[in-house]
Automatic annotation (TrEMBL):
The chain crosses the membrane at residues 866-891, 903-921, 941-961, 982-1003, 1023-1041, 1053-1073. Residues 39-85 form the RING-type domain. PANTHER family: X-BOX TRANSCRIPTION FACTOR-RELATED. Binds 2 Zn(2+) ions per subunit. One of its GO terms (biological process) is cell wall organization. This is Cellulose synthase. It comes from Carya illinoinensis (Pecan).
Length: 1092
């Protein structure tokens, strides 16, 4: 698609479409020819009449239909408008057909066209020529005839029609209309094609009053995907046969001497394999889990049967909290029952798909980079991410990078323009010297020892020169940021004087700019560069744009129009590619001939730069990525975490995963059919099997049609040929009214429709990113990223797993992606708040895994993990209450546990030992250090009593009162010094609950110790349990205390004021109300004094 280096902006609803010349003379070129409407039948542009107005076929609804389709419909179709079902009236210049109204001033057109005998051939020939050649193209008659003959020969004459060749008895014979259904030749056109007279199609009766979709009109068909790599390998692979005696010795020797044979054998082997955890590590872990469940049974038996009568409220609260903790532990533990690891073979991938002397057969990949606010997400970070993508170790013609600017910021646009210029120097440097990582900021941050590493002097000179280039590039980017700090009153203006279309962030047209990948744009060495495309979707007031999920869905559609790669990579703007072979790692799974068809996405772990060694707030999430995700990979695959994920485009389109045909079960042949042992059980399940057979048949059809879903759900038991006939109207309801996009979903090789001009593609690309495109479609419901939650990533992955797909967790030795983490305490809590709020929204939605998705492809243990993922914010309430109990116990002198016996001591000791053993064994097979494990435990408490608690209340407000809360975009790391933000104190209301818990427990310890000192030596014994309980809370909140202190030498004033306030309130309340003092036990004694 050639835009000649200009920004494309437009609005489909307002019929606006302009090309902005940012490089040439200061003018705006209005593209009049691109403002035409698109025919909703064939996808071509509608003609302009001699009066200068667009052609209108239907005077009732003005449904956009071109002149050729109008003539074809009147001559060979049912003569009614597909939209309003009203009969087409004859337009001046059109041939008469039977049923036209009599006109007084009619022009004699009956003899103008020869419509006798060859009307069908003439109409279809005109239609096919119009659609295949394109506007303004000229072809001779022989070329048309050849094309039509090829199309006719490609159609099988015995395709079964959906009407089963039966006539409708309710239609009289004189009202029967015979039509030929529109087909799709080689899955690359969506318009009707010519059918030769030799093809033995049976005519179909059709009632004009019925919906055309019932008869299959407007449908498209696609061929079954053939695995051509198998054929190629079978043709080239020599089969070595060992023969006895001396016969055939020479031939055998020639085969064995073939140098291609061992490589082809290696290339046919699997591209990856599973690595199970050694039994010496996993079996003890499983035994400890089962043992811990047994110990929990004895523990709760003792706790429930031994209440504390003098502190019944405290005891009951503690028991309820402990039961909830046990349930949440079980939900979290069992998905880790069978963890696995994986290993890839990149050399086999190259042998299979990259043969010498031939073009690379690796699949195309579209890469999505999303950004919103350039002030919180610095353009320099986004530029580094884009540069690492453009320099990835993958064929350049297979890569297209899309940058979604959801803030329509001119700063992002200008920074991307600078990035594209610098990429012409950076990309060849990376590939020439094979450097890692390929993000310049982090590459030059590494320290290089020139003598120790024995580097080539040429490389040293090139590296120094490139570093100077990058420093100049940084100066230009930072200069743009400085200028963008102050917005002019009239708004931003481009270099040619054109106002920036995105000056109003909430009301602007869609914008598309192709920076790289155009003809003539090469790097400094004359090599081709990957395509780099800027996209900003249209935004208008009154529309719900669905934040990140809506932006990603817009990229899915626009990428289908422009490049239509079968696989998509989604990364955040601050997550650069740290391993240049990351895409090849993913292709080892997705392009594997045996298992790749059932994989919906390949998820990579998140790794972060700029985090201090102590990792005070558990930003690395090591326990989650190295333990939990490995466990899920052994079930149905890891969850989608929002970035660093390579998708199968078909899975994003909401299709079911292809099903394997199970071998027939064993039957009993030794007994007669009347045998009660065999025949009786089969008879009992006969109805169930027939229903399952219908479902299996549908899913087999979708598998053979490359997992394309049978949208026509009302038809059961259809066979493979009939499943390929899908009503176009159903596609419109699913994918929206873009014939080009619908055609792209049906492409066999995920190619862009041939013969389409750049103008029509640009028009369609602007159309699919319009703000109203998703109205009355399944986008966000069943297709693309799913709406309804802040954590759209979890919901999207969950829907894919419900469709029967499985995901894969890939952990290469060199981390595939690295990003920036909000290491500041307040920003970290806000990040966790967003995640927890998304889980609460899913919990209260129809997609809650507790009740959604039964009877589909979701496995039981995978459901356990999703349930745990949506209910974990509920743990905040019992944990907050449980962390408050130690302070109350110290204030009152009561405790939640009675005096324990020897049996109780053994149970408590066994429980503590099992908890410690579970953690140790997890760290052992997961490869996690005790430091990372302990930081995770600490921040689990901090996040639960702050972010999770607020998320729970915000979710309830949203569900019950409809109060929406805005998700805060966390700021990315800045260049203000190493770990600068770690010591920055930012006040937020999320700090109140953990700070209150910390203060009251510290005060409780002081009160408890003071009380024991006053009461004597005998009071020390009961105090130890309470002190242990309180210190457990304080130690878990210690990183929070360090965050409050920051880098200051004194405690922040807000902490001092809050501590004094809380201490005063608790002291006054305790003096006024003591609920643990029985009023009836007061004994009055006579003092012995005579008051009289």
């Amino acid at each position: 698609m050639d835009t000649k280096g200009r920004l494309v902006a437009g609005s489909y609803n307002r019929n606006e479409f302009v090309l902005i010349n940012a490089d040439e003379v200061a003018r705006v070129t209005s593209t009049k020819e691109l403002s035409r409407q698109i025919c909703q039948i064939c996808g071509d542009e509608i003609e302009i009449t001699v009066d200068g107005e667009p052609f209108v076929a239907c005077n009732e609804c003005a449904f956009p239909v071109c002149r050729t389709c109008y003539e074809y419909e009147r001559g060979e179709g049912n003569q009614v408008c597909p939209h309003c079902k009203m009969r087409y009236k004859r337009i001046k210049g059109s041939a008469r057909v039977e049923g036209d109204e009599e006109e007084d001033d009619t022009d004699d057109l009956e003899n103008e066209f020869d419509i006798g005998g060859n009307a069908h051939q003439i109409a279809v020939s005109m239609h096919s020529t119009h659609l295949n050649v394109g506007r303004g193209s000229q072809v001779n008659g022989s070329a048309i005839a050849t094309l039509l003959e090829q199309d006719s020969a490609s159609v099988s004459p015995d395709i079964s029609l959906q009407t089963h060749r039966e006539k409708d008895a309710g239609i009289s014979s004189d009202k029967h209309t015979l039509i030929i259904p529109p087909y799709m030749s080689r899955a690359k056109r969506v318009h009707p094609m010519l059918v030769s007279e030799s093809a033995s199609f049976q005519p179909r009766p059709m009632d004009p009053n019925k919906d055309l979709a019932v008869y299959g009109y407007g449908t498209v068909a696609w061929k079954e995907r053939m695995e051509e790599w198998k054929k190629k390998q079978d043709e080239k692979l020599h089969v070595v046969k060992r023969q006895g005696g001396g016969g055939g010795g020479n031939n055998a020797g020639e085969v064995l001497d073939d140098p291609d044979l061992p490589m082809m054998d290696e290339g046919r082997q699997p591209l990856s394999r599973k690595l199970s955890i050694p039994s010496s590590k996993i079996n003890p872990y499983r035994m400890i889990i089962l043992l811990r469940i047994v110990i929990l049974g004895f523990f709760f038996q003792y706790r429930i049967t031994h209440p504390v009568n003098d502190a019944y409220g405290l005891w009951l609260t503690s028991v309820i909290c402990e039961i909830w903790f046990a349930v949440s532990w079980i939900l979290d533990q069992f998905p880790k029952w069978s963890p696995i690891m994986r290993e890839t073979y990149l050399d086999r991938l190259s042998l299979r798909y990259e043969k010498e002397g031939k073009p690379s057969e690796l699949a195309n990949i579209d890469i999505f980079v999303g950004t919103v606010d350039p002030m919180k997400e610095p353009p320099l970070i986004t530029a580094n991410t884009v540069l690492s993508i453009l320099a990835v170790d993958y064929p350049v013609d297979k890569i297209t990078c899309y940058v979604s600017d959801d803030g329509a910021a001119m700063l992002t646009f200008e920074a991307l323009s600078e990035t594209s210029e610098f990429a012409r120097k950076w990309v060849p440097f990376c590939k020439r010297f094979n450097i890692e990582p390929r993000a310049p900021e982090w590459y030059f941050y590494q320290k290089v020892d020139y003598l120790k590493d024995k580097l080539n002097p040429t490389f040293i000179r090139e590296r120094r020169a490139m570093k100077r280039e990058y420093e100049e590039f940084k100066v230009r980017i930072n200069g743009l940021v400085t200028v963008a700090q102050k917005v002019p009153e009239e708004g931003w203006t481009m270099q040619d004087g054109t106002p920036w279309p995105g000056n109003n962030v909430r009301d602007h047209p869609g914008m598309i700019q192709v920076f790289l990948g155009q003809n003539g744009v090469l790097d400094i060495e004359g090599n081709e560069l990957p395509r780099l495309i800027y996209v900003s979707r249209e935004k208008r007031p009154g529309f719900d744009h669905h934040k990140k999920a809506g932006a990603m869905n817009a990229l899915v559609r626009v990428s289908a129009i422009i490049s239509n790669a079968p696989y998509l990579l989604n990364v955040d703007c601050d997550h650069y590619i740290n391993n240049s072979k990351a895409l090849r790692e993913a292709m080892c799974f997705l392009m594997d001939p045996t298992s790749g068809k059932k994989i919906c996405y390949v998820q990579f772990p998140q790794k972060f730069d700029g985090i201090d060694w102590h990792d005070r707030y558990s930003n690395r999430n090591v326990v989650f990525f190295d333990i939990d995700m490995k466990g899920l990979d052994g079930i149905q695959g890891p969850i989608y975490v929002g970035t660093g994920c390579v998708f199968n485009r078909l899975a994003l389109y909401g299709y079911d995963a292809p099903m394997k045909k199970k071998p027939p079960g064993k039957t009993c042949n030794c007994w007669p059919k009347s045998c009660c042992f065999c025949h009786g059980s089969r008879k009992k399940n006969k109805k169930k099997k027939s229903d399952d057979k219908k479902q299996l048949k549908n899913r087999e059809a979708s598998s053979q049609m490359h997992a394309l879903e049978n949208i026509e759900k009302g038809i059961e038991g259809i066979d493979n040929e009939k499943s390929s006939l899908m009503p176009l109207m159903k596609f419109d309801k699913k994918f929206g009214q873009s014939p080009v996009f619908i055609a792209s979903t049906l492409m066999e090789d995920r190619e862009v429709p041939n013969g389409a001009s750049s103008a029509s593609l640009l028009k369609e690309a602007i159309h699919v990113i319009s703000c109203s495109y998703e109205d009355k479609t399944e986008w966000g419901k069943e297709v693309g990223w799913i709406y309804g939650s802040v954590t759209e990533d979890v919901l999207t992955g969950f829907k894919m797993h419900c469709h029967g797909w499985r995901s894969v967790y890939c952990m290469p030795k060199r981390p595939a992606f690295k990003g920036s983490a909000p290491i500041n305490l307040s920003d970290r809590l806000h990040q966790v708040l967003g995640w927890a709020l998304g889980s609460v929204e899913i919990f209260f939605s129809r997609h809650c895994p507790i009740w959604y998705g039964y009877g589909c492809g979701l496995k039981g243990l995978e459901r356990f993990s999703y349930i745990n993922l949506v209910v974990y914010p509920l743990t905040s309430i019992p944990l907050l209450a449980y962390c408050t109990l130690p302070a109350i116990c110290l204030f009152t002198g009561k405790f939640i546990i009675p005096e324990i016996s020897n049996y109780a001591s053994l149970v408590f000791m066994a429980l503590f030992v099992s908890i410690a053993a579970t953690g140790i064994l997890e760290m052992q097979w997961g490869g996690v250090s005790i430091h990372d494990w302990w930081r995770n435990e600490q921040f689990w408490v901090i996040g639960s009593v702050s972010s999770h608690l607020f998320a729970l209340f915000q979710g309830l407000l949203k569900v019950l009162a409809g109060v929406n809360t805005n998700h805060t975009v966390t700021s990315k790391a800045a260049d203000d010094g190493e770990f600068f933000e770690l010591y920055l104190f930012k006040w937020t209301s999320l700090l109140i609950p953990p700070m209150s818990l910390l203060i009251i427990n510290i005060i409780g310890v002081v009160v408890g110790v003071s009380d024991v000192i006053n009461n004597g030596y005998d009071s020390w014994g009961p105090l130890f349990g309470k002190l242990f309980f309180a210190l457990w809370v304080i130690i878990h909140l210690y990183p929070f205390l360090k965050g409050l202190m920051g880098k200051q030498d004194r405690v922040p004033t807000i902490v001092v004021v809050w501590a004094i306030l809380l201490a005063s309130i608790f002291s006054l309340l305790w003096v006024r109300i003591n609920p643990f003092l029985s009023k009836g036990d007061i004994v009055l004694e006579v003092c012995g004094l005579d008051c009289d």
